[in-house]
Amino acid sequence: MTTPAAPQPPASTPPTVACPTCGGPALFAPSNRWRPFCSERCKRIDLGAWAAEEFRVPSRESEADSAPDSQDA
User: Which residues are involved in binding Zn(2+) (predicted)?
Assistant: First the structure.
């Protein structure tokens, strides 16, 4: 005797996240080949910003860099 198969839970819908470029909804699933972006356009805009060095990590200037060199005098 075979037992009936357990019912499968309903497929959950993939989460939607905010696109980092435009802020619009972007499906975060393998079906969205540009994730986490909403489109190829937004992905290319972000890539261009990186290439143009628009994203920078702030750093503090060290004291050695700001002090004048004694050898230059």
Answer: 19, 22, 38, 42
From 52, 61, 29, 26, select the one nearest 40 (Cα to Cα): 26
Residue 11 lies in a domain: no
Binding residues are 19, 22, 38, 42
pLDDT along the chain (73 residues), means of 10: 62 87 94 94 95 86 62 56
List binding-site positions for Zn(2+): 19, 22, 38, 42
**Cα distance between residue 41 and residue 21, in whole Å:** 9
pTM tops 0.85? no
Structural domain includes residue 70: no
Q: Tell me the residue type at 10.
A: P
With tokens 């037992």, the residue in question is: 3
pLDDT score for 48: 94
